[in-house]
Write a structure and sequence with these properties.
Layout lengths: L3 E3 L3 E4 L4 E7 L8 E7 L6 E6 L6 E3 L7 E6 L4 E6 L8 E8 L2 H6 L5 E2 L3 E6 L1
Parallel strand pairs: 2-11
Antiparallel strand pairs: 1-3, 3-8, 4-5, 4-9, 5-6, 7-8, 9-10, 9-11
Amino acid sequence: QVQLVESRGGLVEAGGSLRLSCVASGRTFSYYAMGWFRQAPGKEREFVAAIRWSGANTIYADSVKGRLTISRDNAKNTVYLHMDSLKREDTAVYYCAAGLRQTEVVAGNGVNYWGQGTQVTVYS
């Protein structure tokens, strides 16, 4: 069993930066691929980024490439999402996710655990 707890999001001016973190309980964190998803008001939840258990490979949604960076620290059971050059359309609830395979996390159908979500609001 893995529990995921995201850090508090925040209110950020457009063009600014924010870092989210997600701490996982349990000793098997390093076995899991990790991902971030988001859900904007009135829209379906969408994939943002994913990272393999080793941290060696990352995948991003086209809409965030070059602006958002996923990373992980297995020693701290933590995955991060560093967000730069934020836009108003990045406003959403962001969810941390864990699954056994990165490809399945990306597809959304192989997520075994979800965090509770954290609100990120970008204003201009």
